[in-house]
């Protein structure tokens, strides 16, 4: 029943989005329809990834899950880079990080906390993730700081950005190796808590691979249609690129993960919610963002790693608050509320700029 | 015996302060006398609040205690706002926060640590308070950051200040609900440790209410007299508004809490000391400060929420150090000394500016 | 065998360094030879200090160890101050702090983590050291912040620098008193883990004192020779003072401690490695740096305590990452890798400036 509705909505929203694009409807209509479509195609991509991951075995599967997890975000950003909208890319990366750390995590803790007085999860994982997030913040702050002092040329800033991006990717690859190979059992409290992972997948092996390809193509198409509307959309409504990138794009592009995290919290699997929210931010900071720097380099014009002060403060604030709240391995509704309130404060501030 | 001395000093200092004000004595004399008087009337207000709280039942009582706890600070600030001394209001809010986190907490840990080798308290409470303080710092930093970038107009800064103030008050109200209703037992190690709360109050119900009214009026009068002297006092001695607000006003206005916290530490109830010190900072950041923004709005000219960089660094530093020291739930004399040394460094810096 | 090689290398490198200096060889040759020599004379000073400490009894011995531990760093810096190279002094202090917290600690955790899956140490110690490092960061930030706002004159900045330096030394002396007298057993997991300390020293009492004097003189001479080459060396190779001070001088001046920390990690005494790395940073921040401020004051021109933003960010980043990684009392290879990667990012940034 639920399944049928999902696939119906997937196909209808995808087709409508294509029709709106090719019949050149008003930007607002195009934007709304393709924003809805992206939620469903991203969800479909998630299902396909999980199914392929099942057949690929746990190690490769974990890797596939981790890298395809933010595929929608990555693809949208590549189209934004092609359009030269570097500022909106950085705003949407910022938005994805703070959205995951404040809104997704906050909603999960709040919803879970209303149902259960106190929820617990593995403290080691929280500690590691916190340190990794700090490292990501450091890596983002350093190029900005040097670019700000004007002691280095734009060309040197690009070099520094590429080196920092390379180091972040190295850190990310070793993180996968650490968490999936050398210290696999050390970090997880999920094995026991997540029987879902051992469920039979819905599709056969070949069907899963086919669907993964189809889903990726669908995400790419809808992303392109969505990005095409943004310019008109900003001029019409007076939204700043910053607000649009950091809040609208980020929420739409991560909708699938949002609902998964909240579902898990309501099933008292708060550890999984925390991992989805923080893990997703980590992927964006340590993998998606640096990959985009290299992508822009290959496109001919390097997108530097210089985030604005406002973006850096927003990311720094989100990381510090999320780290402080998760470090004791226990959560409650009030902690969730606090995270959401900080998100609202940042949202108001970004909206007013 | 002690009681008699207290009431004697209360009445004498209050009357002298009034005489000094109405006979127009020199500002220095007026300042000194009313500064002494404010210590006693604030102490009297504290006693009256506690007594009324006793009759009001635990929940309403807790709320009364919490909101009247910084009544003196609030009333002084309202008179400062009426005089248009916005900078001094912010300086005294800053001073109250760092004074509680560094001086009061430092003195308590130091005094308690000289008597007992190691003192312990409930870690959950420390974690929560730390996160709340971080949120308060975030809320203070964001308007300052945006105002600093000049991308928003003063009018938008006022709007942002009012919204942030509203969100902080929401956070504070839910914090009261969380800590007094849904997770009452979860956070407290005081119930067992504080038999004082169950002592018989000194006054009958009607007397308590009467005294609460009288005490509030006395605090209001002395505050007005004190504030009246400040302008002359700064010009005469060359103290900056910043130093006067952040150190003199803050110490005088919180004297009652200071002595209570140190007393508790010497009775090995370090958890109560920590709660007085951190709880009082929290009230100021999450309740007094935002209420003052609304008060100034009602007076016709909005006091924005834009603290100076120096004030923000001072608050940030105090929160981070206090959080780091309290997060293990164990304290000793050296931690107290460190807090006091940081307070001295900040004091010297504020004095030199 | 190992011993013979060490003393041979010590004497040969020392003599060659002197020959290179007095025969006025090229700056590059002089720099390289004296950089090699400083590693061996610093190692010799370390051995002599330990031997004298053995005879002096545990308390005075601990104090000697702590204060002579960074003698090489201190002596090099005094020669830099005599030459008026204040910026290079601050850069090398910065470099010593981040080198210890990121490179030494990172290498120890990495090497130890490859051999042992998880290594553990006393959490109380880590907490205390973390708080002290935070205090040091605060003390460094405050003068810089005020100097930056231009609200105080250079003369007032000097006064503030001297007062802050004095407070840091007070904090350091009380830290020695706390950790060696009042809470000696509370912080140590070394007593049991470090039988080496109870080994018979290699030399008699009088020989030890003699060697301590000889070693100090040798360090002083080689430091002077090394510093003499720096000016030419920077102009010839285009290295900035910042990079030279923060990376080359800092690595050379702390080489002895580096190898000791890694050795301990490989013997699964990770607590000792952590203490060497963090303890050494603390000595530099709380003792060497403030002493240098007073030394410059005695030389006639006060070196203020105003570090550049880049240096402060580097120190702040190193402290926060190291604190985050050590606060759970457990370490693994990936944490070591992260620390080293952050060091590389900072190194690249400093090199490009």
Automatic annotation (TrEMBL), chains A, B, C:
One of its GO terms (molecular function) is calcium:proton antiporter activity. Residues 27-180, 208-350 form the Sodium/calcium exchanger membrane region domain. One of its GO terms (biological process) is intracellular calcium ion homeostasis. Residues 1-22 form the signal peptide. It is found in: Endomembrane system. It is a multi-pass membrane protein. Keywords: Antiport, Calcium, Calcium transport, Ion transport, Membrane, Signal, Transmembrane, Transmembrane helix, Transport. The chain crosses the membrane at residues 30-48, 60-81, 93-114, 126-147, 159-178, 209-227, 233-256, 276-299, 305-322, 334-352. Its main location: membrane. It comes from the Bacteria. Pfam families: Na_Ca_ex (PF01699). One of its GO terms (cellular component) is membrane. Belongs to the Ca(2+):cation antiporter (CaCA) (TC 2.A.19) family. Ca(+)/H(+) antiporter that extrudes calcium in exchange for external protons. This is Ca(2+)/H(+) antiporter.
């Amino acid at each position: 029943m639920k399944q049928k509705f999902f696939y119906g909505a997937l196909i209808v929203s995808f087709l409508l989005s294509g029709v709106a694009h090719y019949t050149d409807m008003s930007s607002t209509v195009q934007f709304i329809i393709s924003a809805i479509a992206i939620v469903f195609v991203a969800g479909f991509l998630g299902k396909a990834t999980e199914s392929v991951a099942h057949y690929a075995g746990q190690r490769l599967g974990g890797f596939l899950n981790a890298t395809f997890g933010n595929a929608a975000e990555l693809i949208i950003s590549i189209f934004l880079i092609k359009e030269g909208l570097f500022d909106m890319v950085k705003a949407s990366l910022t938005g994805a990080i703070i959205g995951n750390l404040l809104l997704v995590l906050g909603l999960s803790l709040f919803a879970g906390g209303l149902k259960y007085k106190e929820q617990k999860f593995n403290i080691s994982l929280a500690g590691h993730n916190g340190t990794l997030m700090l490292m990501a913040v450091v890596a983002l702050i350093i190029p900005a700081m040097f670019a700000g002092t004007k002691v280095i040329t734009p060309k040197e800033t690009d070099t520094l950005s590429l080196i920092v991006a390379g180091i972040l990717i190295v850190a990310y690859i070793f993180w996968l190796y650490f968490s999936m190979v050398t210290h696999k059992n050390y970090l997880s409290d999920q094995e026991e808590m997540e029987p879902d992972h051992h469920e039979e997948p819905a599709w056969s092996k070949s069907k899963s691979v086919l669907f993964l390809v189809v889903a990726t193509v669908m995400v790419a198409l809808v992303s392109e249609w969505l990005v095409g509307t943004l310019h008109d959309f900003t001029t019409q409504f007076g939204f700043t690129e910053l607000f649009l990138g950091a809040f609208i794009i980020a929420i739409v592009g991560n909708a699938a993960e949002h609902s998964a995290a909240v579902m898990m919290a309501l099933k008292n699997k708060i550890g999984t919610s925390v991992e989805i929210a923080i893990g997703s931010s980590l992927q964006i900071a340590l993998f998606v963002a640096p990959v985009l720097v290299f992508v822009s380099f290959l496109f001919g014009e390097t997108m530097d790693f210089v985030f604005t002060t406002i973006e850096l403060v927003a990311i720094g604030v989100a990381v510090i608050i999320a780290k402080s709240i998760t470090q004791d391995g226990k959560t409650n509704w009030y902690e969730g509320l606090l995270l959401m309130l900080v998100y609202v404060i940042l949202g108001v501030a970004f909206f007013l700029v």
